[in-house]
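Hi Prof. W.,

I finally got the F-box/WD repeat-containing protein 4 isoform X4 prediction working! I wasn't sure whether to trim anything, so I left the full sequence exactly as given:
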Amino acid sequence: MPSVPVKERVKVSQNWKLGHCREGILLKWRCSQMPWMQLEGDSLYISQANFILAYQFRPDGASLNRRPLGVFAGHDEDVCHFVLANSHIISAGGDGKIGIHKIHSTFTVKYSAHEQEVNCVDCKGGIIVSGSRDRTAKVWPLASGRLGQCLHTIQTEDRVWSIAISPLLSSFVTGTACCGHFSPLRIWDLNSGQLMTHLGSDFPPGAGVLDVMYESPFTLLSCGYDTYVRYWDLRTSVRKCVMEWEEPHDSTLYCLQTDGNHLLATGSSYYGVVRLWDRRQRACLHAFPLTSTPLSSPVYCLRFTTKHLYAALSYNLHVLDFQNP
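And this is what came out:
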């Protein structure tokens, strides 16, 4: 961040490296949730039950204005996943529907997309891809006159837990449950819907992929039930990842996030553990257990900025403040 003075950048950098931070709780809710969130500018978007709420950060970045900027509704059941794209929110619901919401207006459209809950969705370049428990992935246009017109239906033979479109807009990757098909990571052509390749080999049954993200057109990261984060470079090999990191306590990894450089953060399935990794090392740098009560919760989603890390658990939204530890 060029706007941050060099002295401040060095101080914050050392805090990340040494694990010095101050923990706080931004939001609480009474009922157990499986929240998902996104950051955009000075706003935070988070799902709670069948709503998506938008909040504005206060200048310190470690607290929120309590009154939501906006509330986006439309699903009959919980929101499972959502993304921000082209001033739209594209949401995936447990009701089998995809919702399209304009961020700065009341415009909302939803349409039936799958026979069971839509677990994941992504949107880039005017194209939406969705994955469902019904063992299919589908491709949709975002154009207003063609909403709900399915371009391709792909039989994945497995529940689809995660999905991501390549930055080149030519293909997309699905992360599946690894129960009905031997490979949990497969890449599909976006224009034809045909299988291009699968990643890795010799996955044990049940090694499902819960989160996957592209860092560049040729590199992507994945994590899931088999407790590993894997880094894939499609230019070198599609059968073997170039680097992997194992969760030391054998916990499922629900989510991951990277700064595109050396920093990697993961969220575990027990006791709200967030781990920071330096991708040049095998062992994790720091672990932050965010559950302070006997109630254990996964980290369902995490995001970070230069100075803060945000983690969504079953009952609250935590912040780790690396600017003012």
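The chain has a mean pLDDT of 94. Does that look reasonable to you?

Thanks,
D.
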